[in-house]
Amino acid sequence: MAFIYIAGLVFSLRTHKDLFDASDEIKETREKPTMSRRLAALILFFTFLVVTFESEILVGTIEHAALAIGLSQAFIGLVVIAIITNIAEISTAVHFSVKNKLDVSIEIGLSSAIQIALFVVPILMLVSQVFNFGFTLVFTPFEILAVILAVLIVNYLSADGRCNWLEGAQLISVYSIIAIAFFFVV
């Protein structure tokens, strides 16, 4: 799966980037970089280290607090940590949707999901096996059904390549229903 994700990156960024070119409107507003690539890479690496450290603190703190108030690990992972760790993507997607650039907003959410499913999870599985962390992909039938229904609903709503506020509200309600189900069922 990680190979397919990397192949998709090569496809969209190298071999077929003409298919993914931004519109003329976006090209006209392109800004010149204000820092060198080396400085940007250094800042990105430093930020990666800080976020890694903070994520470890966040997960440990939330896990103890949530278990103290009776939340299941599935609910913590699927709702609490998912929302907190994706707050930057969520705010960026909302920002673009407010500017009536729903295609960019949808792409942010879908690209994030694809990145997690095809790249992060396989890498985590590999690292878990090498260092014996015990990470597995064993799901309950309820969890599998929730994923299948969520994928079908997102596919149905985004198949035409367009979106409006009602479809966004429907997606939020689907997420809310799944979160409530995981709170009470799992």
Can you give keywords for this protein?
single chain, about 190 residues, globular, 8 helices, mainly alpha
List the helices and strands and how they pair.
Blueprint: H1 2-15, H2 24-28, H3 37-68, H4 73-85, H5 87-98, H6 102-131, H7 141-158, H8 165-184
Number of helices: 8
Estimated structural class: mainly alpha
Succession of helices and strands: HHHHHHHH
> Any low-confidence stretches, pLDDT <50, length ≥5?
none
* Helix residue percentage: over 70%
On the 0 to 100 scale, the average pLDDT is: 82
Number of individual domains? 1
Please indicate the percent range of residues in DSSP E strands (runs of 2 or more): under 5%
Tell me, briefly, the overall form.
globular
What's the total number of strands?
A: 0
